[in-house]
Specification:
Helix content: 40-55%
Oligomer: single chain
Structural class: alpha+beta
Order of helices and strands: EHEHHHHHHEEHH
Distance between the termini: 44 Å
Number of domains: 1
Radius of gyration: 18 Å
Shape: globular
Strand order of the largest sheet: 2-1-3-4
């Protein structure tokens, strides 16, 4: 069985698209997917970047493209009432559901609730009443499994998110979604066919994966 780490932040529509499409990409392969929430804004800050929704022009294009991609792939995707928004409450809710054995991971069910909260219905992802309803749903889910529920705003849960984000940075990740398998990083929902090719044993990866990246810089802007 192969191990895939799926780093995500529910604020990203591309992460939502990749999450929904991932099962079809993995058909026929024995894999364990570990869903790891990270703070996308922290990755951007570490690399001195702005998010797509923070750049005029690119923001408009991003929203149009992801809406079309959802239509094209048959993935329900409705823009939330406000975007971007503060995803910390959602990230912490998800990690409050992590098990003691894997404190930095969410189950696929939990990750799905976070994504659907944002990308289904066109509602306000930060609405306190909606967040309270989501928390109640997740608490009930944990109670059914007789698992402890640390407070989402506890130091324990906050540290889980920091640790995940630090791990992502140590791996060289710069955005979400990012899928990591056997030291190979696949970034973005449009990398899903490439991920599938790698899992299928495409010979391209033997001779080109490292070689194409080993190029000297001709110029660097400051």
């Amino acid at each position: 069985m192969r191990d895939i780490a799926f780093f995500y932040d529910p604020i990203s529509p591309y992460a939502h698209l990749a999450f929904e499409r991932l099962p079809e990409v993995l058909v026929g392969h024995s894999v364990l997917v570990r869903y790891k929430p990270v703070l996308f804004a922290a990755l951007l800050k570490a690399h001195g970047q702005l998010g797509p929704a923070e750049i005029p022009g690119k923001r408009d294009w991003t929203y149009r493209q992801v809406s079309w991609l959802g239509h094209h792939h048959g993935v329900p995707l409705e823009m939330p009432a406000n975007h971007p928004f503060n995803p910390l409450p959602l990230l912490r809710l998800g990690l409050a559901c992590a098990s003691a054995e894997a404190p930095g991971e969410t189950s696929r069910f939990v990750a799905e609730q976070l994504f659907h909260h944002v990308w289904h219905g066109g509602l306000d992802a930060s609405d306190p009443q909606r967040l309270a309803a989501l928390q109640a749903l997740l608490q009930a889910h944990m109670a059914e499994r007789e698992r402890p529920w640390p407070a989402p705003d506890s130091d324990e849960v906050k540290q889980r998110l920091r640790s995940n984000t630090d791990e992502a940075l140590a791996l060289g990740l710069f955005g979400v979604p990012a899928m990591v398998v056997e030291g190979h990083v696949f970034w973005g929902q449009d990398a899903l066919p490439m991920l599938r090719a790698y899992l299928d044993g495409d010979a391209w990866f033997d001779g080109h994966w490292d070689a194409v990246a080993q190029r000297p810089e001709g110029v660097r802007r400051t």
